[in-house]
Amino acid sequence: MKIDPQSSADLSAQIAQAIRDAIISGQLIVDERLPSESELAEQFNVSRPTVREALKRLAAQSLIRTQRGATGGAFVNRLSFEGAYSQQVTTSTLLLSMNAVSFDTACEARYALERACASLSAQRRTADQLATMRAEIFRQAQPGLTDEAFCASDVAFHRALVDGAGNPVLSYQLASAVEAMQPLMNMITFTARSREEIIALHANIANALEARDAEKVDAALVQLESYTRQLAQDVAQKKRKPA
Amino acid sequence: MKIDPQSSADLSAQIAQAIRDAIISGQLIVDERLPSESELAEQFNVSRPTVREALKRLAAQSLIRTQRGATGGAFVNRLSFEGAYSQQVTTSTLLLSMNAVSFDTACEARYALERACASLSAQRRTADQLATMRAEIFRQAQPGLTDEAFCASDVAFHRALVDGAGNPVLSYQLASAVEAMQPLMNMITFTARSREEIIALHANIANALEARDAEKVDAALVQLESYTRQLAQDVAQKKRKPA
DNA sequence: AAATTTTTATTTGTCTGACATTTAAAAGTC
DNA sequence: GACTTTTAAATGTCAGACAAATAAAAATTT
């Protein structure tokens, strides 16, 4: 692990990169303890605050964790799906909100991905996952539900659908896409009529999954996508030309 | 932007979270300048090193950038697809290498996602993207190509296929999945025979895209997936029982 | 007056040294 | 032997300083 004293980049960034490379290349393995901050400072020939800034950078990426105390220090993290997932949600959400990605584009991506695991889900979904979906459908039908709560339940429903594929990599990638869209979905007002429609489509999906009928799941998802886009369009139109 | 003095979490982590929340919620907008480090230190009632650690955390997530000098400071970054993408590749690569995700699981996820944009790509791919694919196929046929170079070209080919869908969100999500698998793919030795086979399948895909035939693209991808998994299995078997 | 150079102020980057806090192990005590 | 106290090591935080970069302001020259 060396740094280039000629480089114009921040020392803390260089040190972080050096350690990051060591982790990625396997020189540092999971749960291994890094040298103490003072030792690292000596190794890299910098001061402790500089080392600390580097370590905080790595901590922000969940590459390391720190513990205080006698046997404390910085340890290489085992990257968990959960951790990576929540980080991914933050990033995706910001991407959507900052880059003026159109609702249609986001929607298209989401459903394209979701349909990708629908057929796997039809094969593998467990009874538990099906029950979760049914429970969420039931919740969605409750009167007096706020739009936010309705959307949250919608996310949970689709999350269960995705998890049904039984592939953690897919769950990780997809769940973040679904969740990142939630702020956009929250901007849609769901009338009683549109909720009914969505719930019916959700029920179709659940029924098709119960029957392990991949084609019907796919068809229902296609319908749900086009209906969602229709709703968004109506909302956009009303905004332009308020009654 | 406030922090909880009762909390046991690091001050720098709390401050980073407070600023992060402000960015996500839109209180701080793109290219807006944060208060100077000294001002932030005063606001949060902490020292400057602590503020700096917080800012480094945000910089590690590309949420902010810093500039030195008179009009310098920390500015809110516009999250770019490229930046998010490279970060995502790092995370996904580590996830695959650290969590003993089986090759089959990763492969299944990758092709499920890839097939998801194949039909879009068949509709929308540009002549340029098709030409890129053809060029990569040509490169793959060159004798004397190392396995690493072959894999890199493979990534480029699939990247072009994904980009053909014309949906930046899909490109972003998918390209990272494809690229994250590269280290795993690099462990496979591609014999002349297997390269031939893969190149033929790539050609099938390109032809089908040229004809804008979504079904044929899908079929070729299914074949490619099963062939890739077959290859990986052979490699694993040879490792267990070396000739 | 215009162009160039110098100065100056501001801001981040880095260093030094100190103290607080947490934690586990070692030492001491009952 | 079980419990308590001490100690040492590590991270967390602070204060103050200087270095380096940078742009604006001021001064100088043409």
TrEMBL record, chains A, B:
Single Gene Ontology MF annotation: DNA binding
SMART domains: FCD, HTH_GNTR
Endpoints of the signal sequence: none
Alphabetical keyword list: DNA-binding, Transcription, Transcription regulation
Top-level taxon of the source organism: Bacteria
Ranges where the HTH gntR-type domain occurs: 9-79
SUPFAM superfamilies attached to this UniProt entry: GntR ligand-binding domain-like, Winged helix' DNA-binding domain
InterPro entries linked to this entry: GntR_C (IPR011711), TF_FadR/GntR_C (IPR008920), Tscrpt_reg_HTH_GntR (IPR000524), WH-like_DNA-bd_sf (IPR036388), WH_DNA-bd_sf (IPR036390)
Name of the protein in question: GntR family transcriptional regulator
Organism: Ruegeria conchae
